[in-house]
Amino acid sequence: MAIELASLDSQIHLLSSNERLGKGKALNRAIKACSGDVICYIDADLATDMAYLPKLIEAVENEGYDIAIGSRLMGNSQAKRDTRRLLASVAYNQMVRFILGSKVCDHQCGFKAFRKDKIIFIIDKIKDNHWFWDTELLIRGQRQGYKIKEIPVAWKESKSTKVSIAKDANSMGRQIIRLWWELRENGR
């Protein structure tokens, strides 16, 4: 389908790789390849209602924000998800706020927009190539003083998610500690 879309519209550029890059490496590569001033990404399962995309772009393009993100955890969000995953998400985000000092409610929603000139400055500093990429980007952005707008969204959980609570919780917990230690040692 992606190949077909790219062949129908010259503004769609398909990047592919013979090796599995992981979410973080794939996003870094795509961001560097983009030519626009505002870069957006959405999860492939389209869990976030696309009606919110103009708000995301508007926040970065016209409201002076460096990063705009969708949030499933703000009070007026409309997220339909499994109770286990909701509890895991809330606990994860609380840990990130407590340990890393973040002001963001939902670090992991795959619905984000960035000013390229700001984001390009920090993506090479991100060490995680998988699920923690989003969190590390937001923490590093906050440490740089970037303005971040969180937008409540309507979101519906996909049945075909690749996220495994049991497997990924351990990895992400280690990444929180790794980033905390790194920022503590380096001061940024």
Structural description of this entry:
It is built from 7 helices and 6 strands. With 188 residues, the chain is of the alpha/beta class. The protein has one domain (2-186): Spore Coat Polysaccharide Biosynthesis Protein SpsA, Chain A, CATH 3.90.550. The strands form 2 sheets. The protein has a 4-stranded mixed sheet with strand order 1-4-2-5, sandwiched between helices. The protein has a two-stranded parallel ribbon with strand order 3-6.
Question: Key terms for this structure?
Answer:
188 residues; alpha/beta; Spore Coat Polysaccharide Biosynthesis Protein SpsA, Chain A; four-stranded mixed β-sheet; two-stranded parallel sheet; 7 helices; 6 strands
Task: Offer a concise description of the structure.
By secondary structure, this protein is an alpha/beta fold. It has seven helices and six strands, in the order ααβαββαβααββα.
Major sheet size, sense and barrel closure: 4 strands, mixed
| Structure annotation, total helices | 7
Oligomer: single chain
* Mean pLDDT metric: 89
Q: Which fold does the CATH topology refer to?
A: Spore Coat Polysaccharide Biosynthesis Protein SpsA, Chain A
CATH H-level superfamily title: Spore Coat Polysaccharide Biosynthesis Protein SpsA, Chain A
CATH architecture: Alpha-Beta Complex
As for the number of domains, it is 1
Order of helices and strands: HHEHEEHEHHEEH
How far apart lie the N and C ends? 41 Å
